[in-house]
Amino acid sequence: MKDLKKDSSGVQYGHETIKEWDNITVKAKKYINNIKKEEGSAESLKEYIDYARASYMAYAAVDFAMNYYTMSLNLIEREEDGADYTAELKKAVADLEKLVGKVMDGEQISDADMALIRGLRSMAEKRIAVLTSYVEHFDVYEYVLNRVEFAALGGAAEVDREELCERIVNFIFKDKDQPMIMDRMKNILAQLPVRMTKQRFCDILSNALDLYKGADKTALESFAEMFKGLTLISKPEGFEEGHEALKSLLNDFKEADYATIDGATFKDLQAKLDEVVADMDEESSDYILLTQLINSAYVMLISTDVKEQALKVRGYSEAVDIIHDVMNKTIDVEDGFYKLEGVPEELAEETTALLSAGESLAEQYEDTLKEAGLTESFKLTDTYYRLMSTSYFASLDEEKKPEGDEAQLAAAEDVEAVKKELTELVTAHLSGMKKQVKRAVMAAGISAIPVFFNSVDEIRNYVSYVLDSVNDAAELHATRLLIDKIIDADLEDYPE
After folding, report:
1. Which of 370, 388, 406 corresponds to the end of one domain?
2. What is the domain range of residue 482?
3. N or C: which terminus of the chain carries fewer CB neighbours within 10 A?
4. Rounded to whole angstroms, what are the CA distances from 364 to 8, 41, 81, 368, 369?
5. Residue 362 and residue 350: Cα distance in Å, rounded?
6. What does the DSSP assignment read for 178-215?
7. Domain closes at, from 372, 388, 404
8. Quick one: how far is CA 412 from the chain centroid?
9. Same domain, residue pair 167 and 203
10. Is residue 402 domain-resident?
11. Is there a single domain that holds both residue 143 and residue 267?
12. Within a domain: 258
């Protein structure tokens, strides 16, 4: 179950008896008061969880209706544009239409139906993983192009290294908010020039990994996977399948001579990069939208036993009407979505309150729920939460707690094993790589490494060293512009 904090009334969900608090919805409060009145009877608990699940079903139906309409428009555009993934999207949407149609028509949901929805979710997750990897590859070449731009086109201006160093340090520490400091530092490190040997890079990586000793072992494993992806060491399953245009373009970037690049070649590569970034953004958005449809449909499929209750929840019937109209291509957008005005927000608030209260109820009345066979129904609300969250690929498997306090902590030998693996992979991976690309890969890695500085002076010394090591006026000018862009964007988001 998710870790929930205290709400404004001071209720600690999952740790004390549910009380009445201001921001819970009227309907949810009614069911909770009934549980109190009935002294936690099985019947009152069942009424509560059925209403909670029905509310989630309505929320999912509304979410599906809105995204389904958007997807129907996207499919028309992608077909007109000749996008090579259109057929897969259309097939997935057709499968979802059949599944959701069965829910709306009151048909039995079979094991095969559940296998289908799980398969669709897995497919979408793999597609997003592949697209993410392509983005990481092209990010590296974007880094390279940014730094050779003024060498190829001319126009570099002189940069005051000392002034730029102080500007960077002042930006990183312009306030005392630690997460913001870490975020700014990461963004800056990703754009600073890299002037270090493979050994120095591996030393920084190795020292940073020591921070994981005694920490959550899964965090260590997650970092290793992320690092391998960002530095292009590993590729996800399916990377080599399809996407012929992307593979061909990647090869063009690999073969380019960045040491002697001229203006015409630079402009050609930059135009290709701009186009492919736009295409990947569009494809990624489509698969994220598909995933949202899949997750909403999943909620509906596992909630058919409370459909009658869902019909009484505001938004469900209206959403079903819209879904039918989109399927039949008879949608009246203005009239259909007008009926849902404010409903998504209302249901989001309702389901959040119900989930939060449900965690406390599950703990308080654990024995009653077991005796009444309601434990699994209460657990379903956590599945709903995961499916309707913005962590689109959150695992639906129940998290198993470690048997001991240290069961999931990274021991020294675990960290040493990861160090050995990553340093060996990095050394082999960077060997024979073009200098400009090697630096870009290192920059991507540096930006992902946990902070390896112990003081403001260490950061200042590192930035100063890096800037002083750059003898290429064109690269230094490009760096200044990129840093300015980061600082300006931050100032726009967080005005002083």
Report:
1. 388
2. 129-274+417-493
3. C
4. 21, 12, 56, 9, 10
5. 18
6. HHHHHHHHHHHHTTS-----HHHHHHHHHHHHGGGTTS
7. 388
8. 30
9. yes
10. no
11. yes
12. yes
Q: Residue 110: count other Cβ atoms within 10 Å of its Cβ.
A: 10
How far from the centroid of its chain's Cα atoms is residue 369's Cα? 35
Instruction: Read off the amino acid at residue 203.
Output: D
What is the Cα–Cα distance from 157 to 222, expressed in whole angstroms?
A: 41
| Dist CA 315 CA 350 (whole Å) | 12
Q: What does the alpha-carbon distance between residue 170 and residue 159 come to, in Å, rounded to a whole number?
A: 17
CB atoms within 10 A of CB 292: 22
Task: Output the six-digit token pair for 257.
Answer: 């001579």
How many angstroms separate the CA atoms of 178 and 187, rounded? Answer: 14
Place of tokens 């398969």: 119
Whether 57 and 98 map to the same domain: the answer is yes
Are 260 and 157 in the same domain? yes
Taking a C-beta distance cutoff of 8 angstroms, is the pair 352, 55 a contact?
no
Residues 56 and 167 in one domain: no
Which tokens belong to 438? 């090697």
Residues 134 and 113 in one domain: no
Q: How many distinct structural domains can be found in the chain?
A: 2
Whether 155 and 268 map to the same domain: the answer is yes
Specify if 133 maps to a domain: yes
Rounded CA separation 276/138 (Å)? 9
CA angle 56, 396, 411 (to 5 degrees): 140
Partners of 216 in beta bridges: 409
> Does residue 314 sit in the same domain as residue 436?
no
Q: Indicate the burial class of 260 (C-beta count within 10 angstroms; 0-12, 13-18, 19 or more).
A: exposed
- Please state the pTM of the whole predicted model: 0.86
Q: Are 207 and 452 in contact (CB under 8 A)?
A: yes
* Residue 467 in domain: yes
For tokens 């530092």, name the residue. 185
- The two tokens of residue 288 are 């994220």
